[in-house]
Amino acid sequence: MGKYFYLNAQNEQNGPVEVGKLKSLGVTENTLVWSQGMPQWAPAGEVEELKELFVPVQEEVPTPPPTPAPKPQPSPSHAPVSHPLYLLPPVSLQFLQQEQPIAKWSILLLPILALRLHHLMVSLRTT
User: Fold this and answer.
1) What DSSP string runs through 57-108?
2) What backbone torsions phi and psi does residue 110 show, to the nearest 5 degrees?
3) What are residue 32's DSSP bridge partners?
């Protein structure tokens, strides 16, 4: 590789400079350069020996890994259901000890009926 003269922005002649230093001195592909053996000044981008200085360097961007699959959402048939017995109000023992046989039996049967209703609802939902 030879040494080149170049014209700066003020059209002043500088050099001779080694090829490796031209770019660091502000020489672009449009800067006029000349070296021994050239018939006249030419833009640096048109000189065969200097073309490689102005090839854009593309950084190699790594390919990201595949996007993970989304987590499956539970379907409505598998959605958690509150147990119906937890939805019942608490029953005090004093209320059950009172002399009201109809109320006593209805309070005792209510959880059983609620549980049956719950099973019925679940079976209807899965069909």
Assistant:
1) PPP-PPPPPPPPPPPPPPPGGGS----GGGGSPP--HHHHHSS-HHHHHHHH
2) -60, -45
3) 43
